[in-house]
Design a protein that fits this description.
There is one protein chain. With 356 residues, the protein is an alpha/beta fold. The chain is 40% helix and 23% strand. The protein has 2 domains: 199 residues, Isopropylmalate Dehydrogenase, CATH 3.40.718; 142 residues, Isopropylmalate Dehydrogenase. It is built from 12 helices and 12 strands. Strand 6 and strand 7 form a beta hairpin. The radius of gyration is 20 Å and the shape is globular. The relative contact order is 0.17. The structure holds adenosine-5'-triphosphate. The site of adenosine-5'-triphosphate has 16 residues, from loops. Adenosine-5'-triphosphate binds next to loops.
């Protein structure tokens, strides 16, 4: 039977362990799609720190235009020991997220039987969260500067930007996601007790949007209190909506509590159907394990699965999630971050076998 070639994917393996895990992710999504008689068109963009070393740019000037020709972007990691983080991050990942206005970043965290959590199993099994992160402004808007540079009175400012529309659209997106989940519960993460301007607008817009969603139960939690709730009472949380900085921190905590940084996945969503969304593992380039074939590929595989869901390939995506669950339930084999001795390739091959 002729294969349907429906999706045109941009692949940016990036730096560090990015290429290793993206390779695994691609093998898994290709195989799952093939079982449904669907193939993808792939275009690899070798942008990142090596590109920077040659061109003094992390991606070409017309990079965003190139990406706009695709249906989705599959991204590895960015960061290099020899180049400042703000150059690598702002020059590639943030440039894409902001340039394509991927304003919603979503990060699922779920306890999977077999993957060891630092929490007691009785508590950990209640982890089933979706963190919705504002991804275009807030504390990472890039507003600020240095005055009196290199003088004893040098001063740096970092201005968090909250716009009415920026707050409205992310809250609305979070309510819509909460509506799709069985518990229909949304927690507003804030710090408006101490930050009285932008965070107040953040809260105000939440309650304004809430009027449209009478069936969603809501709760307000200060970000510091939220960390304790996540550790002690994970069942109290379903979907959380948080600012760029708060969600960045909470989602690392979420993935550590559900097993390892190596298994977390994330999606940077543009709600404009003509603009591609971007899918990536949450970990960075992990210099300490590059080239050792021990990087955990599950985060990349999981993000590939989120990409398929987003593209409407629900059956192929569900097959991947089922394979991950069976793999974990039967105890791996796991990479060292999850307490095992398996290689990236062994884990990938195991998941491929389970797909079949
Ligand atoms: P970034 O700021 O770019 O998110 P980071 O400073 O948080 O990066 P990572 O590169 O994510 O750091 O790595 C943090 C630690 O987690 C390192 O010790 C790294 O080896 C480990 N780690 C990250 N990803 C994986 C993975 N996929 N498999 C195994 N270990 C990982």
């Amino acid at each position: 039977m002729k294969q349907l070639n429906k999706h045109n994917i941009a692949i940016i393996p990036g730096d560090g362990i990015g290429p290793e895990v993206i390779n695994s992710g691609l093998k898994v999504i290709r195989r799952s799609l093939r079982l449904d008689n669907i193939s993808i068109k792939e275009k690899v963009y070798n942008w990142g720190s090596n590109y920077y070393k040659k061109h003094q740019l992390m991606m070409p000037k017309n990079g965003l235009e190139k990406l706009k020709q695709h249906n989705a972007i599959f991204f590895g990691a960015v960061g290099d020991e020899k180049i400042a983080d703000d150059i690598t991050l702002w020059g590639l990942r943030l440039k894409i997220c902001q340039g394509l206005d991927q304003f919603a970043n979503i990060r699922p965290s779920k306890y999977i039987e077999g993957i060891k959590s630092p929490l007691d199993k009785k508590i950990a099994k209640n982890i089933d969260w979706l963190i919705v992160r504002e991804n275009s402004e807030g504390e990472y808007a890039g507003s600020g500067g240095i005055v009196h540079r290199d003088l004893p009175i040098e001063i740096g400012s970092e201005v968090a930007i909250f716009t009415k529309e920026g707050c409205r659209r992310i809250h609305d997106y979070a309510f819509k996601l909460a509506l799709k989940r069985p518990r229909k519960h949304l927690t507003l993460i804030t710090k408006s007790n101490a930050q009285r301007h932008g965070m107040k607008l953040w809260d105000k817009m939440f309650y304004e949007v809430k009027r449209k969603y009478p069936t969603i139960k809501t709760e307000k939690l200060l970000v510091d209190a939220a960390t304790a709730v996540m550790v002690n009472n994970p069942e109290k949380i379903d979907v959380m909506v948080a600012t760029n900085l708060h969600a960045d921190i909470l989602s690392d905590l979420a993935s550590a509590l559900s097993g390892s940084l190596g298994i977390g996945a994330t999606a940077n969503i543009s709600t404009d159907k003509k603009i591609p969304s971007m899918f990536e593992p949450i970990h960075g380039s992990a210099f300490d394990i590059v080239g050792k074939n021990i990087a955990n590929p599950i985060g990349a595989i999981w993000s590939g699965m989120m990409m398929l869901e987003h593209l409407g390939e629900k059956k192929s995506a569900a097959r991947i999630f089922k394979a991950i669950k069976i793999y974990a339930n039967k105890n791996g084999p796991f990479t060292p971050d999850l307490g095992g001795i398996a290689s990236t390739d062994q884990v990938t091959n195991e998941i491929l076998k389970l797909l079949d």
